[in-house]
Amino acid sequence: MEMLSLEQELKNNAYPGRGIVIGKSKDGKKAVTAYFIMGRSSNSRNRVFVEEGEGIRTEAFDPSKLEDPSLIIYAPVRVLGNRTIVTNGDQTDTIYEGMAQELTFEQSLRSREFEPDGPNYTPRISGVMHVESGAYDYAMSILKSNNGNPDCCNRYTFTYDKPVAGEGHFIHTYMHDGNPLPSFEGEPKLVAIPDDMEEFANMVWNSLNEENKVSLFVRYIDIETGTYETKIINKNK
After folding, report:
1. Residue 111: pLDDT band by 50, 70, 90 thresholds?
2. pLDDT of 214-227, one tens digit each?
3. Residues 171, 19: contact at Cβ < 8 Å?
4. Which residues, in sequence order, are CB contacts of 143 under 8 Å at separation 6+?
5. 135-180 pLDDT, tens digit each
6. What is the pLDDT of residue 157?
7. 6-234 domain in CATH 3.40.50.1970?
C-alpha cells in the first residue's frame, strides 16, 4: 500500500467529517492516536473537547445554542486498563462496557450500526490501542450503510498486531463533502507518524479546512511505561 501524505489528504478534502489516526512514532517508542471533529451546521460547530478522567468528552461551547445533543455530545476517548478506545460517537461506551465484560472489540460493536442521520447515515468509526509492557497492537473498525441503503449494515474490522515504526492508519467518516455525504470507502489509509507530538498535532490542525474544523485530540503513549502526553486544540476558545 502506498504511504499517503496525511497533510495533503486533509488539505485536499474540505470535509472528511470526523477522523481517527492510529500508529507508531518513527522512533518506535510511542503509540500514537489523533481524533478530529468537523462540522457544517451551527450545532456541530458549537463544540469543544474537554478532558474527562484519562479520556475526553465533547461539550457545547455555548450551552444556550445547543440544539440536538444526541449525536454530537459523547466521550470520544476512554481508557480501560491498558486499552485506549477512540471513536466518533457514543459507541466508545459500548466498546468500553463490552471489553470490560471480556468481549472483543469486534464483538462489542455487534450491537451497533451507523448513525441514524439519514440520508447521510454517518459511519461509526472506532479504534482501540493495546499497550502493555513494551508490546503494542491496535485495531480499527467502520460500521456503514450499504452504499447509502440503511437496510444493511456493512461491518469492517482492521487489526494491526505488530505496528511498524513511523507508520499509522487514517480512517474518516466521509469521502468528501456532498449532499448526501458519501461514506468512507476502502481500508484505512497508510500515513506517516513523526516522533514529535507538537509537530504532528499542529500539522493535522493546520491542514484541516478552516471553516469546518472544530476540535482535535492527540495522544502519544510510551510503549514501555504506558505514560502519555496529550494535546487538545479547540477552535472555540
Report:
1. very high
2. 999 999 999 999 99
3. yes
4. 109, 112, 113, 114, 123, 124, 153, 154, 155, 156
5. 999 999 999 999 999 999 999 999 999 999 999 999 999 999 999 9
6. 98
7. no
Entry pTM: 0.98
Peptide bond into 180 cis (omega under 30): yes
Name, in order, each residue with C-beta under 8 angstroms of 144's C-beta and a sequence gap of 6 or more.
Answer: 114, 121, 123, 124, 153, 154, 156, 183, 184
Give the C-alpha separation, 100 to 181, whole Å: 34
Cell numbers 471489553 correspond to 99
- The identity of residue 168, as a single letter, is G
One DSSP character per residue, 34-102 reads EEEEE-SSHHHHSEEEEEETTEEEEEESSGGG----TTT-S-SEEEETTEEEEESSTHHHHHHHHHHTT
Q: Residues for the chain: how many in total?
A: 237
